[in-house]
Write a structure and sequence with these properties.
The complex is a heterodimer of chains A (about 450) and B (about 100). By secondary structure, chain A is α/β, with parallel strands linked by helices. Chain A has 18 helices and 6 strands. The mean pLDDT of chain A is about 90. Helix content of chain B is about 80%, strand content about 0%. In chain B, helix 3 (about 45-50) packs antiparallel against helix 4. The radius of gyration of chain B is 18 Å and the shape is flat. Classes of the chains: A alpha/beta (about 450), B mainly alpha (about 100). Chains A and B meet through helix 1, helix 2, helix 3, helix 4 and helix 9 of A and helix 1, helix 2, helix 3 and helix 4 of B.
């Protein structure tokens, strides 16, 4: 009976991933995954609920309610932090289980290896995720890189410890400590704009930790689900890395960006006013908006929607061009736009929209910088050389809404800003858009 | 013993492969809910906690650690699915 429930659960998990492939069916995918999870958890009790005391049930109910409460209250702009936090919890749980198995039982040596692996990955995911959350909230600055490098060499060596040393509690605790510190330091050296990679990578690790916990307790469903999460995280990680033309190792090494390398301009940019932008837009037939992290920071989504409506009312075509690493997690911009009811059919990926820029009348760059920097195509010495960018510089006119000429994460000047077809509207993303909308009423 | 281990390894490989194939087809628009959803699934480690809880024996410390694992995993599962549902709801009404 239990086997049949578990079989159904595994199939549902895989089916859920299949349904996830299209926005129209994706909400059903979540229901399927929840069902699969419910069945899997139910089966673990093996129809014997009396084995468990009240402390057990209270813990489940309280933390479940807490989970619902947190998820209902969180704002969409805080989604990267929330995913990071939950990630840490998942990793922490796997790490704790591996610890209990290691210290409570006398496991065969092969299981000891798996348990230590699971524990190290789980604990690393836990502390690394918490640091990622702090970084996303802007509470932590970059960290001494050399110290982190020494630690990273050290970390894999502790996994082979049981081969040479008898395991005892002190040794296990030492390994936990090392994994904790390693997680903290490794993530601490990585800059904020690299967080999409970090979050996806930690997501993958939490799956791998769960999968290896499945090997220790001999649970196939745990292995299957863990492997699915591990695969999903790795895919997203590699996609994010490819979108920046960097390797995972290079991102994890940290120390990239955050400091201005070169922010010199040959000439002054042309600055414009909300009124002029409104006039310019009302003569356009096609407009493409390129949102970046600046839109999330300024909470400008509602203003974006309003401007979109205003333009569409004038029969102007509006599209959104979203770079894969825009924002702080994969798909971050899409969620923020969906929140204000912008149709996902209007959101385009880099591959889909780059060929259209040459015929676009006006591009509005909203709080994005490095992802529209043409140096990525031309300057071999640039740190972003080779990174796929949105080719907005070839559009007929470009309006950049940005507070100042300060460089983006890569720390370099963006020649787009002084291009002949570009004008700067110096404002916060939300304020700038609102002023443009107001000016429309006067046009 | 050997055969079961190899079978388990085979299942692991197949699951990773299916996961890779299916997830590669998910559009960029859905990457955030994909992350929060797969994140919720990683809380499946709750099963391991349920399996070992009755077997921790007398040690209060170990019992508390398993309870912490249960709390973390449950939060991860319930919170993760709930927030994923919220996000996907936003994509649904456009269809």
């Amino acid at each position: 009976m239990i086997e049949i429930i578990l079989l159904v659960s595994s199939v549902l998990f895989i089916f859920a991933l299949k349904l996830f492939g299209r926005p129209s069916t994706a909400h059903r995918a979540n229901t399927f995954a929840m069902l699969a999870m419910g069945l899997a958890v139910f089966s673990a009790f093996n129809f014997d609920f009396s084995k468990y005391d009240s402390a057990f049930y209270i813990t489940i109910v309280v933390s479940g309610l807490l989970g619902v409460l947190i998820s209902k209250r969180v704002q969409m702009t805080q989604m990267p932090e929330l995913v990071g936090l939950f990630n840490g919890f998942g990793g922490g749980a796997s790490g704790a289980i591996a610890y209990v198995e290691l210290s409570g039982n006398s496991l065969p040596l092969s299981d000891v290896f798996v348990a230590i692996f699971s524990m190290v990955i789980g604990v690393f995911t836990f502390s690394g995720s918490l640091v990622a959350v702090m970084k996303l909230r802007g509470k932590l600055n970059n960290f001494n890189k050399k110290l982190a490098d020494i630690f990273s060499v050290f970390l894999p060596t502790i996994i082979v410890i049981p081969a040479v040393l008898e395991m005892d509690d002190l040794l296990i605790e030492f390994i936990i400590l090392v994994a904790l510190i390693a997680g903290i330091i490794r993530v601490a050296v990585i800059g904020g704009a690299d967080m999409p990679v970090v979050i996806a990578f930690l997501n993958s690790l939490s799956g791998i930790a769960a999968m290896s916990a499945g090997f220790i307790v001999n649970s196939i469903i745990l292995i299957v689900a863990g492997a699915l999460v591990g695969a999903s995280g790795i895919i997203l990680t590699l996609l994010m890395c490819a979108a920046m033309n960097r390797t995972l190792l290079d991102v994890l090494k940290g120390g990239f960006g955050g400091t201005a390398i070169n922010n010199e301009y040959e000439k002054d940019p042309i600055s414009t006013s909300p009124e002029d932008v409104a006039i310019q837009l009302s003569y356009a037939e096609s407009v493409v908006i390129v949102p970046g992290y600046g839109m999330a920071v300024a909470q400008a989504q509602a203003a974006v929607k309003e401007l979109t409506n205003t333009l569409k009312d004038k029969n102007i075509e509006v599209k959104f061009a979203i770079h894969p690493v825009a924002g702080r997690m994969p798909g971050h911009m899409n969620v923020l736009l969906a929140e204000v009811d912008i149709d996902y059919e209007d959101m385009f990926t880099l591959e889909d929209i780059n060929s259209e820029f040459s015929s676009t009348d006006v591009v509005i760059v909203l709080g994005a910088n490095d992802v529209v920097n043409p140096l990525a195509r031309t300057d071999e010495d640039s740190p972003i050389y080779g990174m796929p960018i949105l080719d907005v510089d070839i559009a007929k006119q470009v309006i950049v809404i940005k507070r100042s000429m300060s460089p983006g994460y890569a720390g370099i000047a963006n020649p787009l800003f002084i291009n002949d077809n570009a004008k700067m509207l110096f404002a916060d993303a939300k304020e700038g858009l609102e002023n443009i909308i107001k000016s429309f009423e006067l046009v | 013993m050997e055969a079961t281990f190899l079978l388990t390894l085979l299942i692991t490989f197949l699951a990773s492969f299916i996961g890779y194939e299916l997830i590669s087809k998910i559009p960029q628009t859905l990457h955030t809910p994909l992350m929060s959803g797969s994140n919720a699934i990683s809380g499946i480690t709750l099963i391991a906690a349920i399996l070992i809880y009755p077997e921790v024996g007398e040690s209060q410390l170990l019992k508390i650690i398993v309870l912490i694992a249960i709390a973390f995993a449950t939060l991860n599962i319930v919170g993760g699915f709930s927030v994923t549902g919220r996000i996907l709801e936003m994509f649904k009404k456009n269809d």
